[in-house]
Write a structure and sequence with these properties.
single chain; globular; alpha/beta
Length: 240
């Protein structure tokens, strides 16, 4: 779902056929980086976990030479982008699933914003700080729901130690960094217990059910009030 949303923003912002310079901070196993490289973009993946880097390089090795040439893997921490790259070096900067593991996100987001060229796109995927109380309440965990109103951490063990961010706080942060929020989406509005497509498909009766589920998630992810209580938020800021 995040990939669909990202593609929508890229198509709406950049000329068709333009080869973009993309930075993927916390690239993990490289799924997003490879997808964008296959689309013709030049992608730099920044990752600090050695196991993830090995997995990303193994996946990259299985790609055709033309795609391999469009991907560069850099070992490093997302908080040190200024050490590796010059300001304004990228048209698109991705940081998906990283902020939730950083105690103080503002310096990281500031570094990401500095990497953007004018009119560049910043894509953040974060845990939604307004969702844990809803999730706990739907499970009948009233104590957990009450606690979740006042904590940036999830009210369950779904991601132990992870933080959550609230939309209003990140909106203010992005505005202060000169990359104000352009649009935002909810991710995993109804499918919070499904961690991947295989799990979703396993629980459904036929492919048509999965297609319908994805259509519901896509619609809910851009529609109020549903997107406001999604498990994750996908924020897209634009460098002024």
């Amino acid at each position: 779902m995040t990939a669909r949303q990202l593609d929508e923003q890229i198509v709406g912002r950049f000329p068709v056929g333009r080869r973009l310079r993309v930075l993927d901070v916390g690239m993990g196993r490289g799924a997003q980086a490879l997808r964008l490289a296959r689309a013709g973009h030049q992608v730099t993946g920044l990752e600090r976990d050695a196991e993830m880097i090995s997995a990303a390089r193994a996946a990259l090795a299985g790609e055709p030479e033309g795609i391999r040439e469009r991907v560069r893997v850099v070992e490093g921490d997302g908080r040190d982008t200024g050490v590796h790259f010059l300001p304004g070096s990228f048209d698109v900067v991705l940081c998906h699933g990283v902020l939730m593991h950083v105690a103080e996100p503002d310096p990281l987001v500031a570094g990401l914003a500095r990497m953007l060229a004018p009119d560049g796109l910043l894509s953040l995927l974060v845990r939604n700080g307004d969702a844990p109380a809803m999730r706990a309440g739907l499970r009948g965990d009233w104590a957990g729901a009450l606690a979740a109103f006042d904590t940036p951490r999830p009210a369950d063990d779904s991601d132990a130690g992870a933080r959550a961010d609230r939309l209003a706080d990140l909106t203010a942060t992005l505005a202060g960094l000169g990359a104000p929020l352009h649009t935002w989406y909810g991710v995993r509005v109804f499918t919070d217990t499904a961690v991947d497509g295989a799990h979703v498909a396993h629980g459904l009766g036929c492919p048509d059910d999965l297609t319908t589920l994805l259509a519901v998630e896509e619609r809910a992810g851009r529609t109020d009030p549903y997107r406001g209580v999604a498990s994750l938020l996908h924020l897209c800021g634009v460098r002024g």
